[in-house]
Design goal:
about 600 residues; alpha+beta; 8-stranded mixed β-sheet; 6-stranded antiparallel β-sheet
Length: about 600
């Protein structure tokens, strides 16, 4: 057994259980096990339809390696707006940018979009001032006075409860903004500066409010708090009047001073405004923030989190890694032999079969459209040259593409040759034969077809199975040669037998690697060749700025740097300024100018 194969298989099982157990297939369909998103999609700094070197110049993209087993790509893109339901943020207050994390590991490729959620939608609106509920006067009917006198406080409590029920809807939107005292229903409201008249005193009104709403604060029962106390015995009436007149005079002078200086800017306090939101200038800010929240920028993670070298070879290997399958794949040929057909041309020319045959084919898998199928193709083409649809079967661990002879067009000899090329190259052949004679291997001449599973219809919806294989092929099941199967379980058992036969044939290939082993080895090779060992300072600099910032392609025309001068002189100056100049070259150029100036002076 190869070194480390057990640990790789264990990692594959763990990732499969975590990623796919209980939620396969997802909304993408059974053909999509992993993500089809790449770094160039939705990237405002990339216009190429595939991975290209211009991604290395994007200031919003960086490549990482986690634990030497997982490749991470962190990309900052624009958030989607005007989507029903609010899109990814579900209508909550968020930012204008989204962070996309693309993960490539042993189980496949996955893409996650994340955004900062600040809170409910009203958080983005300006704060509203606090408002207090004003008391609503009650108008009692004349006939209720006697009832009020008889019932006393009980009637008042009932009226207060009725008013509370009527105002509950109006108060519901203000409960979060009201002060605790304002939420209480009282006979009088808290005196505010706007509600006071000129002849009313704020302190007097506040004392009256406290005495009314909190009777326990009264010094003497029945005496309001705003009742002025008697003057002390040591102060005469004349002295008291003098103090009152002095206070009134001071009040009048202050009022006159305020009216005269009301328009003076130096006497006014500056209004404090709410600061406006600041948009981050860095195109990688939110990616850096997410990495920091996840703890990837810490010193402790330096041994397990690294950068990747940016070069063309990395892009080629990423493309190759994305093209590799993340599941076990098989391609199986299906033939239909009608009554009396014993040659290749007649069998390959069939475009349909009996109803029992069509029911059997539909039970092998579900029909997929080859033009937009995103799963395993098995060598079939999307240009309709190999048919429009074909049966396809998939689970979270295996994909099977059936090459059905009656689904491929037999329009010409060239089409028959192409059909034979696809069907004959398959190592497992399923033959539905309605001919009275047994099917012979040499009818379809091919070097492959190591396993033949021939189905013969019988009476009472029963079918006889004949399995022919080469001697070196190991045993497989569940069907065996000579088995008789009922119609209901025939497609399932034949499909399982064909898959196991394909696995048995692959086990004979020298140095054969399973899909998970091959993907793990390839990931290990990418990490070994492209991991960039850096110091913590260099790593922090690359995370802070993945690439020199430049304007978006749409804004490039407005950049001052992109505007070139007109005329030969401007071009010459531009060419000189574009070239780097060393100190020695600058000195020699200055000496040349001095010589020219001295020579011209001598001539004059």
């Amino acid at each position: 057994m190869q070194q480390g194969l057990i640990s790789i298989a264990a990692r594959t099982v763990i990732t499969h259980l975590v990623n796919h157990l209980g939620h396969y297939p997802m909304s993408g369909g059974p053909a999509m096990l992993t993500s089809q998103i790449c770094e160039n999609q939705d990237n405002p700094y990339s216009e190429c339809p595939e991975l290209s070197t211009e991604l290395f110049e994007s200031p919003n993209l960086q490549f990482f390696v986690l634990n030497n087993t997982t490749l991470l790509s962190s990309l900052q893109i624009r958030a989607e707006d005007n989507i029903p339901g609010g899109g990814m943020s579900a209508g909550l207050t968020t930012t204008s940018s989204t962070v996309r994390i693309i993960v490539r590991d042993i189980s496949g490729k996955y893409s996650w979009d994340s955004a900062i959620l600040y809170g409910p939608p009203h958080c983005s609106q300006p704060s509203q001032p606090l408002r207090f509920l004003e008391p609503q006067p009650r108008q009692d009917e004349p006939g209720d006075e006697e009832a009020l006198q008889e019932d006393g406080g009980e009637a008042q409590e009932e009226d207060v409860e009725i008013l509370e029920e009527e105002d509950s809807e109006e108060e519901e939107g203000l409960k979060d903004f009201m002060a605790p005292l304002a939420k209480r229903r009282c006979r009088e409201a808290v005196p505010s500066w706007d509600s006071l008249r000129d002849d009313e005193d704020a302190l007097d009104e506040m004392l009256q409010y406290l005495g009314t709403t909190s009777p326990e604060c009264l010094q003497r029962a029945g005496v309001p708090l705003n009742t002025p106390p008697p003057p002390p015995g040591c102060v005469s009436e004349k002295q008291e009047n003098d103090v009152i007149n002095a206070i009134l005079k001071q009040h009048t002078e202050e009022k006159d001073f305020a009216e005269r200086r009301n328009n003076d800017l130096n006497m006014r306090a500056m209004e404090q405004e709410e600061p406006a939101p600041q948009m981050p200038q860095s195109a990688f800010y939110y990616c850096r923030l997410l990495l920091n929240i996840l703890g990837m920028n810490s010193w402790e993670k330096r041994s397990s989190f690294h950068l990747l070298k940016k070069n063309e070879k990395l892009l080629r290997e990423l493309k190759n890694l994305d093209s590799r399958q993340c599941r076990e794949t098989h391609k199986i040929a299906v033939f239909y032999v009608a009554e009396g057909q014993e040659d290749k041309h007649s069998i390959l020319s069939n475009t349909s079969g009996s109803q029992a045959y069509e029911d059997f084919v539909s039970g092998l898998g579900w029909e997929v459209n080859l033009t937009n199928h995103c799963g395993f193709m098995g060598g079939l083409q999307r240009n309709k040259s190999t048919g429009l649809t074909t049966p396809y079967f998939a689970t979270s661990t295996v994909e099977v593409m059936f090459h059905v002879s009656t689904r491929m067009p037999p329009d010409s000899d060239d089409s028959l040759t192409k059909k034979l090329r696809h069907l004959g190259n398959d190592e497992v052949h399923i033959v539905w034969s309605e001919h009275s004679r047994d099917y012979r291997r040499g009818i379809i001449p091919t070097e492959f077809g190591d396993v033949l599973i021939v189905i013969y219809p019988m009476k009472n919806h029963m079918y006889s199975i004949q399995i022919t294989k080469k001697p070196e092929v190991p045993f497989f099941g569940p069907l065996f040669d000579g088995a008789i199967v009922d119609e209901k379980v025939l497609p399932t058992l034949v499909r399982a037998t064909a898959i196991n036969a394909s696995r048995a044939l692959k086990s004979l290939i020298p140095l054969f690697q399973n899909f998970y082993e091959e993907r793990a080895r390839y990931l290990e090779t990418i990490v070994q060749h492209h991991l960039e060992p850096t110091t913590f300072e260099d790593y922090a600099a690359q995370v802070f700025c993945p690439a020199p910032f430049h304007h978006l392609p749409a804004d490039a025309g407005s950049c001052p740097e992109s505007q070139q001068g007109e005329g030969p002189a401007a071009q010459a100056d531009g060419s000189d300024s574009a070239l780097p100049m060393s100190p020695r070259a600058s000195k020699s150029r200055m000496s040349m100018k001095l010589r020219r100036s001295s020579g011209s002076a001598n001539k004059t």
